């Protein structure tokens, strides 16, 4: 399995790459080939006086390459120029990656300002499952918030086709997952469910599948705002990662991302894994 690991050589990116437990988790789910990507923004020019950004980036990224190789992965390095989220997405699609990983500090103290526009823009546009790996928000030398990526999963579903696709990732995540909480939030704004839908029964069917794989499972049915309720469950059960489809029943993908998925990426305490439509 191929994965793209995006880095801007910041402390947040370094925390993601140098966490041996995170790398071990990726190996456990089947990742064996890592593509380390860093993007030189288009507005940074090689001819700027006294600055050779590309040379500096290549030197820094070579140390990350050694860390990943020592963890047992095949590594390919991409140092490219352009708009970060577009180039990261393009490389992931070109190589046929199964996962893109990006570090993010989450929401800043400034109201409605999200740290890491690259993570936000990837959440809106990615065609590859995206793992936003949360790092400490205010530390000068941050560590990852959750040492284990997939040990305790919180899967949120609206029973849409995209949510089912997100659940299908347990076919490989299960090799690193011990516990899972399955959540459905009932909301009057949700037009996608038939009146005779039995959320508890449908969650129980999903739980049966996970328990066959040896994953301890619990169910949560809530009422209210989806993002708020999912985050309330996160506070209660302390998962390592929230797993969610990035589209749901809404035909307007950006509308849903603005109200749920992007909200989770910005506000969650731990990691968030978004699975886009096929």
Automatic annotation (TrEMBL):
SUPFAM superfamilies: Adenine nucleotide alpha hydrolases-like (SSF52402)
Domain called UspA: residue spans: 4-132, 150-276
UniProt xrefs under Pfam families: Usp
Classification via InterPro entries: Rossmann-like_a/b/a_fold (IPR014729), Universal_stress_UspA (IPR006015), UspA (IPR006016)
Sequence similarity: Belongs to the universal stress protein A family.
Cited PANTHER family: STRESS RESPONSE PROTEIN NHAX, UNIVERSAL STRESS PROTEIN UP12
Name assigned to this protein: Universal stress protein
Organism (species): Natrialba swarupiae
């Amino acid at each position: 399995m191929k994965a793209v690991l995006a880095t801007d050589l910041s402390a947040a990116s370094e925390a993601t790459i140098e966490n041996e437990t995170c790398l071990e988790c990726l190996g456990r789910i089947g990742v064996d080939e890592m593509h380390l990507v860093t993007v030189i923004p288009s507005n940074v020019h090689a001819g700027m006086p006294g600055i050779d950004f590309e040379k500096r980036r290549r030197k820094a990224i070579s140390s990350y390459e050694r860390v990943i190789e020592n963890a047992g992965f095949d590594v390919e390095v991409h140092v490219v120029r352009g708009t970060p989220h577009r180039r990261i997405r393009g490389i992931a699609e070109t190589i046929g990656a199964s996962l893109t990983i990006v570090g993010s500090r989450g929401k800043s103290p400034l109201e409605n300002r999200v740290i890491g526009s690259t993570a936000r823009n990837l959440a809106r546009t990615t065609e590859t499952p995206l793992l936003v790996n949360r790092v400490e928000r205010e530390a000068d030398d941050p560590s990852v918030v959750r040492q284990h990526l997939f040990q305790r999963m919180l899967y949120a579903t609206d029973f849409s086709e995209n949510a089912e696709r997100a659940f299908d990732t347990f076919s490989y995540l299960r090799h690193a997952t011990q516990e899972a909480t399955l959540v459905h939030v009932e909301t009057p704004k949700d037009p996608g469910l038939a009146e005779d839908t039995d959320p508890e029964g449908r969650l129980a069917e999903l739980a049966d599948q996970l328990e066959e794989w040896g994953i301890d499972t619990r169910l949560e049915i809530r009422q209210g705002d989806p993002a708020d309720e999912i985050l309330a469950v996160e506070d209660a059960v302390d998962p390592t990662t929230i797993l969610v489809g990035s589209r749901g029943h809404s035909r307007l993908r950006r509308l849903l991302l603005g109200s749920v998925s992007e909200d989770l990426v910005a506000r969650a305490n731990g990691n968030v894994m978004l699975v886009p439509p096929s």
